[in-house]
Amino acid sequence: MFSRSVLAKAFAPPLEQVARPSLTATSTTFRACLHQSTTTTSATNPPTEPLSATVRAQSSIPAVQPTFQTSTTPVTRADVPADKQPIAPAFTTPLKVSQSLLSTLPQLTSQKPHYITAHLHDRPYLLTEGDDLRLPFLMPNVAPGDVLRFNRASLLGSRDFTLKGSPYLDERLFECRVRVLGVDSEPLRVKEKTKRRRRHVQQITSKHRYTLLRVMEVKAKSVEELQREGAIVEEEAKA
Amino acid sequence: MPVQGIRSVTSARNGVGAFILQCKRLDFHYCDWAGSSRGMVSFLKHQLNAFAKQNPQIEIRVSPRPHKHPVIKGHYINGREKAVCVRNLEPEQIFQKVNLLKQNSGEKNKRTKKPVTSINDSVRGIWSPYHGGLKSV
Amino acid sequence: MKRLQLQRWSSSALSSRVRTGSRLHRQIYYSGARFQSTTSNSLQFEDDQSLAGQQPTPPSTNSPFPQFTKHQLPSPPIQAARESAKLAALHARLYLPSRLPLETLARCLVDTSADPNFQFNNNSLSVLGHDLLTNYASEHLVCTYPRLPLTVIFAAMYAYAGPKTLHAMSREWGVEHAAVPGGEVDPGLLQFKRVAPGTNLKEARPLVGTTRPNEDQTTWRKSITSSVVYDNVFGDPELAAPPPAELSDNVYPTNDGINSEPPVTAEVASANFVRAVVGAIYLHAGRQAAKRFFEQHFLSRQLDISKMFNFSQPARDLARLCARENYEAPVAKIISETGRRSRSPVFVVGVFSGRDKLGEGAGASLVEARSRAAVAALKGWYLYSPLEVRVPSAMEEDGAAPWKPVYVDLGEVIV
Amino acid sequence: MATSIAVSKRPILGLPFLLPCCEPVTLQLRRAQSTYRRTKQRLRIKPDASFGSSTDSTQAHIIYNPPSSAPSAYHTPLKFLPPNDVRRTLRTDTSSSSLNIDALPSVFKSVPEKKYHLTREDVEEIRKLRASDPLVWSRWKLAQRFNCSPLFIAQACEASPQKKEIQRQVLEAVQSRWGAKRRMAREDRELRKESWGRDE
């Protein structure tokens, strides 16, 4: 459903890299992206296909970082064990975009605030940058401070233009990153249950926990970025 | 003066740029004598060190509170505090409670219906009957 | 671009913190209030229990300087920084670079009102941090919105780097305030001398000693352009800096023993702290780290610049603008209307220049709608933003692309 | 509740003051359908026609559907874009204005054309007349005599301090007769007028 990137280039840990000059050599490989365990891509063999996500493709080499393990304080999100390193998504075919999409894409990207209808477990969430998102469930295996990347969306729009997927957009067309803020819970709910002819009221309590997210980035990739990442322009078959 | 500036203050969006964990302090209270603190004492002896090392951004205080049940108190950046009583709990259960306090935002528990809250202006604007698709009469 | 030699000019800010005997000699005369301040710090007492190493260090006999207990110092000693849990937690919470030592962070937390000695308070760091912050904020604003009028730039600068914002940020970083500053206080607390409760801060005292000439002439017109020269980055009058010779002499307070610094509000003290942190990052971790810190903590905050405009005569300004830019004179036309004869009519009026619509507004009267349309058109002009924005400080990175000139506007409309 | 039941036995139309409290009930009844399914069906609104149907394309595509809302201040009008901006070329083909601008009525009934017929001597004359007897030669009278607007008279010359004092006293006399309501209404109007400039 979502890909998880523990360390992106622009976020807090690079401060750490500056901090420790001895480690800069090892930490220049960005461990960027991790698919949730549902995707069955392997981390060890980087795909040889021309990837559209070349930046993320660097991350498929498991970073060697024994020095990080021994570091004491401050421990940041960079200290992720090797087996939990993010795995880059592997695409077998390069991204194909139609000519008409390429011609109208600059109009979408030049209009600045964007919204996205990201889907998570088949529920749509209309998000803009900086929004608070309280998922209606507790997301497993995430810690506060993690950066996730939503890779399923049906709409990506600006004020006048909307990029529509059929039914979903290819994840290489956009970037939507969220950060895990923590876990929130609701007040205790008490449900009174009664049975017939039984003079007893059963009280069922429940208190669910929810994951809090914050949208860090909603971005439609421009034509230059798509071409740099190896997108193939496809002629319109019907037209 | 043709135009004047109205002073305002930027509003915080924790996590968009930098992320700051909302839990700033955890207080552990225990009793040396009482049996309900047995798990807590074991937790303090064996697991607290590793927890503190993993979460350097949380200040940790340990203090005895004789003849009382063991309590963990989390202090949050918004000034609120949350306390969890951990009497008769096993160290693993206490660890879960500590994690719960650590990940919490410190806000009062509220039931919300809408998943997304935004402080941005609407991207496509608020619908108005005077714009778009005007019918000439 | 040649790199600045940090070591040379920052040596005063980073000087090894040695307390000289003469300096300490004056500390003896500190008033009794400082000795009692432990009682007002009940929180701290609890903290000391958990941390084993808080006992005062035993006096060493081989030291050439006389030893004093912590109670006699105006601010916590340097050794205490390593033992404070609060300080380490704050360091980790902000993801500060490990090159920035805890001692410097502790120094950032000591305000001038707590410790008047410039070698122990955060004054030098906060001056540096303030300059960095305002530099980064102003280049961001000017490059992103090149047409903003100066008054709005002042307001936006205040919103990004003003004391109110910095105060809010230090609260969001979880910085607590010490009740009374002193040597025995935990160095992880912000130390400043508080203003006595009930003090009237709002009473308008005319600021004396500003950089502006003829400041005593209150009735004289103050132009906005002159505030670029004379006022500070927020458009407020600024106190003139003392001559440099006086500064170098004033490292130690002249009047013996008595802390003559005036008390400050929490807002001023925490703003100085945030600035000092930025300055400390710059000195210890370099320019890139400071800039990244600014982007992550300051630029990521939300600000709606379109709500910071206050026009007095928008229609006149728009006419002047169109005349300046050689556009056709703006004409207001009714786009749609409803309920003209009713109690609550709505008119939608557009301002057109030739065949182009400049802006539109809705109002309950034709004059109101026209005025709002002119406001919308002026905002459309002022809030122009180029597509790819690069700030000048992006050139400081290694391997930066060659600089392309940014869009520079003529300036605001002058009526 | 009990009272309403008691009342309901009487003809309700004969008691018109009871009608407003009954109205919401009838409105709700009209809204609800007999089954939940039908209610859901009625509430299911189809997407706008400009949004297009999702089945007509098998690929990701971009549609142009401008919202029906007031324009945003962050979108610079085409005329205000600098000549080398990319958006100038991008926007011309899509956003051709559907409005027929010439057909739109003007806000003001008639726009007086500017004549520029007064000479320097005329202006001297205006100043002399105004200075000679400010009570007789008011702005309005001068404007009529020289066939120009009162605004131009104000730009050309200033009233004498005595005249200003008289005018101030007249205004005070008028305002002294205002009650609290009128005074507050006038003040509110001024405040509202100031809020136009802040776009509130």
UniProtKB/TrEMBL annotation, chain A:
Pfam families: Ribosomal_L21p. It comes from the Eukaryota. Belongs to the bacterial ribosomal protein bL21 family. This is Large ribosomal subunit protein bL21m.
From TrEMBL, chain B:
It is found in: Mitochondrion. Residues 32-105 form the Ribosomal protein/NADH dehydrogenase domain. Keywords: Mitochondrion, Ribonucleoprotein, Ribosomal protein. Its main location: mitochondrion. GO terms for cellular component: ribosome. It comes from the Eukaryota. SMART domains: L51_S25_CI-B8. SUPFAM superfamilies: Thioredoxin-like (SSF52833). Belongs to the mitochondrion-specific ribosomal protein mL43 family. It holds the Pfam family L51_S25_CI-B8. It comes from Aspergillus pseudoustus. This is Large ribosomal subunit protein mL43.
UniProtKB/TrEMBL annotation, chain C:
It is found in: Mitochondrion. It comes from the Eukaryota. Residues 313-383 form the DRBM domain. Signal peptide: none annotated. Residues 62-72 have a biased composition (Polar residues). The keyword Acetylation does not apply. SMART domains: DSRM, RIBOc. Residues 40-75 are annotated as: Disordered. Keywords: Mitochondrion, Ribonucleoprotein, Ribosomal protein, RNA-binding. Belongs to the ribonuclease III family. Mitochondrion-specific ribosomal protein mL44 subfamily. This is Large ribosomal subunit protein mL44.
UniProtKB/TrEMBL annotation, chain D:
InterPro entries: Ribosomal_mL58. Keywords: Ribonucleoprotein, Ribosomal protein. GO terms for cellular component: ribosome. This is Mitochondrial ribosomal protein subunit L20-domain-containing protein. The lineage of its organism: Eukaryota, Fungi, Dikarya, Ascomycota, Pezizomycotina.
